[in-house]
Specification:
two-stranded antiparallel sheet; SnoaL-like; Nuclear Transport Factor 2, Chain: A; 8 strands; about 220 residues; alpha+beta; disordered C terminus; NTF2-like_dom_sf
């Protein structure tokens, strides 16, 4: 149990006496059961929020390390994606498309850092939730010597299936984006994706899957 949940639980227990005192006409066992049910609901909501936080944290780790197996376990099979940046727009339907786009673009010729901050998570029902995350990212395209940085607000929806929260939809439109051409590459001393990312013939930055006129199908070596 997290410290937040434990603290909330303690506070609710301490306040239960005051709640009972406000309702002297209610049968004591009934009042206790109402308090217990309310307490259970609040603790469950806190647990759900914490599980969704962990899901999204793992998502960012999976993105930057191109860990497709990890990402597969976080996504609903029918997940939908819509990302809009300065020169790209990803519209993807289904987990397989999204994983393929990640494998194509987080390849052996890039360095990626995505951090999600300030989560605002709302539990809509026992099986549905939504969240907003403040993204900041850095992205190096080593082949084309391009450096991209910027922010966006992720708007996610989550679905609980068989007791596990999954990403059901995700979208953002860039809040700001800066793309710079590099005269030379930085002095890279460690590069995880160089060893673990796909070897690709072309990048699929524009639409994620090389479906536009600028890009063509790319992948020749799967992620290990």
């Amino acid at each position: 149990m997290s410290k937040l949940i434990a603290a909330t639980l303690a506070a609710l227990i301490l306040s239960s006496g005051a709640i009972a005192a406000d309702k002297p006409k209610m049968n004591a066992p009934d009042a206790v059961m109402q308090q217990v049910r309310a307490l259970q609901a609040q603790v469950q909501e806190l647990r759900d929020i914490e599980e969704i936080r962990e899901l999204k944290h793992a998502y960012f780790r999976g993105i930057d390390s191109a860990d497709l197996d990890l990402l597969r376990g976080l996504m609903h099979p029918a997940v939908t994606v819509h990302f809009i940046g300065g020169d790209y727009e990803w519209k993807l339907a289904g987990r397989d498309q999204y994983l393929e786009a990640i494998g194509n673009n987080f390849n052996s010729e890039v360095i990626a850092q995505h951090n999600g901050h300030h989560p605002e998570i709302k539990i809509l029902s026992p099986t549905q939730a939504e969240g907003t995350w403040y993204l900041h990212d850095n992205f190096y395209n080593l082949r084309e010597k391009l450096y991209t940085t910027g922010t966006a607000f992720y708007h996610d929806r989550y679905l609980k299936v068989d007791g596990k929260w999954l990403l059901r939809s995700t979208e953002y439109k860039r809040h700001y984006e800066i793309v710079e051409k590099l005269d030379k590459l930085p002095n890279i001393t460690v590069d995880y994706l160089a060893r673990h990312g796909r070897k690709v013939a072309r990048h699929c930055h524009g639409d994620g899957l090389c479906r536009d006129d600028k890009d063509t199908a790319a992948a020749v070596t799967p992620v290990q």
